[in-house]
Amino acid sequence: MKYNNNLAVAYAKKYALTPNKEYHFINPKKDDIGDDCANFISQCLYAGGCPLLYSPYPWFYKKLNHHPFYSASLNWTVAHSLYWFLKSNGEINGYGVKAKEIKDISKLVLGDLIFFADLNNHVFHSSIITKFTDEGIPLISQHSYNKLDTPIREEYYKLNIHYLKIFL
């Protein structure tokens, strides 16, 4: 089993600007920005062949009866939880999707993830690399704000940025 980063990126490019109606768009504020970033990244990982997990560390999404009713784990829907789940699963070499944090961005490839944390290192946002500039700078796609192949926001460079290599 191998993470198919090309399928993950294809999914991200298809649904970055117009969310997949098969999934609930997580938007507790009922405005057009929402808090859907981790949900979107989890969808990308799943599209890339990462299997759902129910234990010991749950990472799943399941539609219940009729849309929009669903059940999802915190590791699927919350950026901070997704970040720690991926790293922890990588450290123990657990089943399914996992990640290794790296510092050298030249080692990143399409389909790897970038997480953003505040100065207290609380992760508040997740994104997927869907393109690189000619200079090798990653461009990201995301929800909350829905963006496709966009540069990292300038103000995020003042915060903690976590680069994660994804693998199975």
TrEMBL record:
PANTHER family: EXPORTED PROTEIN, EXPORTED PROTEIN-RELATED. InterPro entries: Amidase_6. Residues 2-153 form the Putative amidase domain. It comes from the Bacteria. It holds the Pfam family Amidase_6. This is Putative amidase domain-containing protein.
